[in-house]
Amino acid sequence: MAASAVVPRRRPWALWLVVLGGLGLITWRMLYLHGVNEAFNAAFFAGAVVRSLQLGSLYALIALGYTMVYGIIRLINFAHGEVFMVGAFAAYFLFSRTPFSWPVALLVAAAIAFGVLQFLNFWRGRARDPIVLAGALVVFAVVAFALASTQLGWFWAMVASMFVTGVLGMTIDRVAYRPLRGAPRNSMLITAIAVSFFLQNFGILAFSNRQTPFRPASFFTGPLQFQVFGEPLFTSWMIVLVPSVTAVLVVALTLFVTRTRLGKAMRATAQDAETARMMGVNVDRVIATTFLLGSMLAAAAGVLWGMTFGSINQPAIFGILPGIKAFAAAVIGGIGSLPGAVVGGVLLGFLENFLTALFPRTEYFSGITEYKDTFAFLAMIVILLVRPSGIVGEDLSEKV
Amino acid sequence: MSARPGDAGGNGAGARGYRPHYLAHRVRNSLLTLGGLAVLLVVLLLVDGGASVKLKQVFALFAIWGIATVSLNLVNGVTGILSLGHHGFMLIGGYVTGLLVLPTATRDNLARSARSELSDFAMGLSVENWFRALGLDSLTTPETLWARFLVAVLIGGLMAALFGVVVGFPSLRLRGDYLAIVTFAFGEAIRLLASTPLMSSFTNGALGFAGVPSDIGKSVWWTFGFLAVTVFVMARLKYSSYGRALQGIREDEIASEAMGVNTAYHKVLAFAISAFFAGVAGGLWVSWVGTARLDLFLFFLTFYFLVAISVGGTGSITGVLLGTALVVWVRQYGDPLEQTYALSTWAVAAGLVLLAVAALAFFLRRVRRIKPDLGPVVYVPGALGLVAALVGLLGQGMPALQATWQGFGMRAITLALLLITIMILRPVGIMGRREFTWAWLFRERLDEPTEEERAQDAWLSNPALSGRAGAEREDDEVDA
């Protein structure tokens, strides 16, 4: 049924007005705070900015997985936060428990090699290409040997964890979601919730339910100090590492989606799965790829998260808040759109960290730090009510 | 679609409920209902009188969670809106009830405690004080706790209903999974806000407050009384004009709006009523535990209710109660799953589960004539299960497999796997949208036409007739 079409008036200047006005207000607020207390100096706000960027990059990495899956099969992958949790824990075991005993090393190497096999398939036409198979076999041998003989550093632990977690994401899709293709969307969402709950409790079963220190030996967790307008800012190299890794991964993902055959198939499936299938796209493979890529990004986010905060929370709750906040970020940016996820993630990072810095605890005011977990929800609800397609998203209003 | 009075909404329930046409059946059904109630009464008497403390608690918990699931079912099942914020409503009802019925001695202790963040104003909120002020001193004794509890639970329910209206408003603009996520966000936001300084003068922050009297929440009679009221209200509501409107919204929102249903009003109403009973359940739940704590109201509650609804039957009150019984059973009697066993035992158990999955998949493929019989769904779990079982059986002597492992979280894992299985195999749940009725038990057709309808049908299908009636009849058939 065609709703009465309201053509919105074009107001191209409105966005600039909002942005400039917001920046002006923020500057005014910063100057005011500086006047109230010398502690709120340039270094204080610069620290808030870099921390916001750091947190926002993490949200962006997780949000990409949500937005890719939603764009392709219109499913809110509730289990994505738990995939992120598993990624962090897998990396933890990879850098803290290696060298493994041989049976464990072989099992883990098999999972990694399977992920690599799927990953290499992106650039090859056929599913069982001999070159790819040979590559995966080599990877299997090398990885099994490496796992059984040396201790991994954080980087290789992250890479290995990405493949393990990617395989987990594909398995979830294969076992739980694929049988439900075409089912009512509520059934799919309930299944996703069940998978999420399963993984939470599987985490309790497998990793023991307590906060785990996450401190791989690394240059980047070391201190970093620099001057902002003559004021010292004490932080760590993670503020450089996290946004850079995110940028690299986002660029790689963009290149994949825009430049490869499978990426093209992915975009086609997102536009219209039925037609894509008729054009010869193997939709199930595209969806599996989406889960693989999204889960890999989530695993990278998990490792960076652990290194940023120095510890990872209990498996039962670790994935919930980052997961739901990243989903909020995806919605804020416009779900289904890759740039939207990045924009939304960074915006949410600023909303949580920089806004808290703009309203710090002073002698007149108790601060808003305790409330910052609810910002993401409030922002999401507001965005959904005001502009459901998100900031950069296209219109996804339900067709009748 | 033939629109006979006995066949509305596709769930076999007529405008007159489940009343069969024959007097004998009606008498039989009434007698059976009375008999069933009598059996229930006897069971409750036995449980209350002679059974162990644990069994009493399990029965009370079933009733409390039954209230919550049946109320969640009004939104999730009847209206077809996936609401995931039920634990938030329960939190509001639970904290309000807990605070209002807190005994004076506990209040004094809390007021003296240095760790208590509760404000004096919150400590003054007591039904006992209000009864005193009204001169109802006879209702302030320990024996008349029920009176204070009733008032408190009513207030808690109303507060939750207020939030239900607030949460219902996004449902006017959002559909489907977006709405589900917003309800989830509301539920989580309520819990997160309850621990902030803003609310901790009422909730005592993360600590919560202990000492809520358990007399009502653990009493089989009171909890089943509340459950009976809830089920009665929900059943009456489901077959009232409101319930029809809600089911219409579930089937096709735009069509029901076109038929003159005020969808906005009905959706918010459904949320409010559902939240009211969730608040009541929350009050009873806090009373059952004896403590108002934030970790009682995590998302796992809503997840359990979702399992109960989806497994039992989405939209069917009796099915939902069946699902609740299952969930409560797994949760309260699933301890053996969480014991410590040797790794070889775990391997054998996992192998057997996987083999069962393979066998089930094989059986279903045979029944549904899916070729080949041995798809990957069969041989992958089958092979994995075989390997795991064999490793477990043959490797019992291996030192690596003699290490022990405690099955933390296995109950929740069981429920999650159950939910996934049900969603894949039978998304509407065991009962579907049917209710359990005696007529269903005896396999009677509820839409059997009456003599009058038979006569009308005969008259309408008379080929000698021509004109409008016949034309309409044809249209009907084309439609169906």
Brief summary:
The complex is a heterodimer of chains A (400) and B (480). Chain A is mainly alpha-helical. Chain A contains 15 helices and four strands.
Explain what this protein looks like in three dimensions.
The complex is a heterodimer of chains A (400) and B (480). Chain A is mainly alpha-helical and 400 residues long. Chain A has a domain at 51-86 and 182-208 and 236-258 and 297-400. Helix content of chain A is 70%, strand content 4%. Chain A has helices spanning 12-36, 42-73, 80-96, 102-120, 130-149, 154-177, 185-207, 238-259, 261-271, 273-278, 283-309, 315-318, 320-333, 338-358, 372-386, and strands spanning 212-213, 223-228, 231-236, 311-312. A two-stranded antiparallel sheet of chain A has the order 1-4. In chain A, a hairpin with a 2-residue loop joins strand 2 (223-228) and strand 3. In chain A, helix 3 (80-96) crosses helix 13 (320-333), helix 8 packs across helix 9 (261-271) and helix 14 (338-358) packs across helix 15. Chain A is globular and about 65 Å long. In chain B, 67% of the residues lie in helices and 2% in strands. Chain B is built from 22 helices and four strands. In chain B, helix 14 (299-312) crosses helix 15 (317-333), helix 14 (299-312) runs parallel beside helix 19 and helix 16 (343-367) packs antiparallel against helix 17. By secondary structure, chain B is mostly helical. The N and C termini of chain B lie close together (5 Å). Chain B folds into three domains: 23-335, Orthogonal Bundle (ABC transporter involved in vitamin B12 uptake, BtuC), CATH 1.10.3470; 340-406; 452-479, no CATH class. Residues 1-16 and 468-480 of chain B have low confidence and may be disordered. Chains A and B meet through helix 7, helix 13 and helix 15 of A and helix 8, helix 14 and helix 19 of B.
